[in-house]
Amino acid sequence: QVQLVESGGGLVQPGGSLRLSCAASGSNFRLYVMGWYRQAPGKQRELVATITSGGSTNYADSVKGRFTISRDNAKNTVYLQMNSLKPGDTAVYYCKVQQTGDWGQGTQVTVSS
C-alpha cells in the first residue's frame, strides 16, 4: 500500500493561484502514473490531471491552460499548480496512484471572494 499525503490547499480569491503537493511513500514512485482528482459538494469525484512515469500529461477540458501537473521523482512528490482559479474549482482535491488505486486523504481548495 502506498501512503499519500496531500498539502497546499486553502482559501483563495478568484483569479488566484495555489500549488498542491502529494508526497508518496515507498521506492517505486518513479514507476507510477499519478492522478489528481477533485470532488465538489454533491458531485461525483472527477479526474483533473494525470502524469505518467515518463512525464506525459493529460488534463480535463475544464482545467486545460490553467492547471499544470508535474512530478519530482527524487522527492516522491507530484504537484498540481493551479492558476486563474474560479469558484467552480472549489472542491476537495485528491491524489491517486493509478496502478494501485491508493488515495490520499484530500486537501480542501476554496475559491471565493
How does this model look, in words?
- With 113 residues, this protein is an all-beta fold.
- The protein is 0% helix and 47% strand.
- It has no helices and 10 strands.
- The protein has strands at residues 4-7, 10-12, 18-24, 34-39, 46-51, 57-59, 67-72, 77-82, 91-97, 107-111.
- The strands form 2 sheets. Strands 2-10-9-4-5-6 form a 6-stranded mixed sheet, with no helix packed on it.
- A hairpin with a 5-residue loop joins strand 5 and strand 6.
- The chain is globular and about 40 Å long.
- It starts with a strand and ends with a strand.
The portion of residues forming beta strands comes to over 45%
What low-confidence regions span 5 or more consecutive residues with pLDDT below 50? none
Count of separate DSSP helical elements: 0
SSE ordering:
EEEEEEEEEE
Helix content: under 10%
Distance between the termini: 39 Å
Shape descriptor? globular
How would you classify the helix and strand content by structural class?
mainly beta
- The count of strands amounts to 10
Query: What is the spatial order of strands in the main beta sheet?
Result: 2-10-9-4-5-6
Q: What is the mean pLDDT?
A: 97
Which value, in Å, is the CA radius of gyration? 13 Å
The biggest sheet, with number of strands, parallel, antiparallel or mixed sense and barrel status, is: 6 strands, mixed
